[in-house]
Amino acid sequence: MTVRLLSGIVVAFGVVLGSSAYANTAATSAASFITAPERIGSAELRWLGIKLYRADLYTENGEGFDWKRPFRLDLTYEREFSRSALVKATLFEMERVEGRSSDHDEIGEKLGDCFRDVQPSDTYSAVALDQNSVRFFLNSDQTCTLVHDDIRERFLGIWLSDKSRELAASKALRGLN
User: Fold this and answer.
1) Residues near 120 by beta carbon (within 8 Å), at least 6 away in sequence
2) Nearest-angstrom CA–CA distance, 158 and 40
3) Going by C-beta distance under 8 Å and a sequence separation of 6 or more, which residues neighbour residue 92?
4) Which of 64, 111, 135, 161 is positioned for an S-S bond with 87, CB 3.0–4.6 A?
5) pLDDT tens, 118-154?
6) CB under 8 Å to 58, separation ≥6 — which residues?
């Protein structure tokens, strides 16, 4: 698959890693950061009828989505994607959503340190606790803590903003359908 295909279907899931923020703590799961997590929305993303992944959004006690409250986005993959394809697709989508930014090259370098190849049934989780940090997990093992100015909305906006490539899926995730 080409990078354009991957980015066109928004399969990326990566992180920006502050050098002092790296963590690899398998003892902590994504579920432990959200009090009483309840799914408020889900969506399947497909390209030409091929299921790529399922996305699920969880909030504390099933409260409505709000950028200012903790939440978790899970992507469960149906296809295999390489680390490099995920990095390139993430940067492509970030640029599409927010325009070119002077820190995209830095973000790309950091993404390479955090991503792993994904296989069918792998789940990446992003736990957003505040506007400048997001914790990432692959199959419940923490891979990184992303620390970067306004990264919660910049990164997760790929899936959860009104500028998402798949607006209907974004609205379904946020429980707006």
Assistant:
1) 77, 78, 79, 80
2) 18
3) 3, 4, 7, 12
4) 111
5) 999 999 999 998 999 888 899 999 999 888 889 999 9
6) 34, 37, 38, 39, 40, 71, 72, 73, 74
For residues 135 and 129, the answer to whether their CB atoms sit within 8 Å is yes
Domains belonging to the chain, first-starting first, are 3-173 (3.50.70.10)
Q: What is the model's pTM?
A: 0.83
How is residue 177 written in tokens?
């359908």
Alpha-carbon Rg for the chain in angstroms: 15
CA atoms within 13 A on the CB side of 22: 9
| Closest listed residue to residue 13, CA positions, set 131, 116, 153, 145 | 116
Residue 130: CB partners within 8 Å, gap ≥ 6?
Answer: 152
C-alpha of 171 from chain center:
16
Q: What are phi and psi of 175, to 5 degrees?
A: 75, 30
CB proximity list for 101: less than 8 A, separation 6 or greater: 94, 95
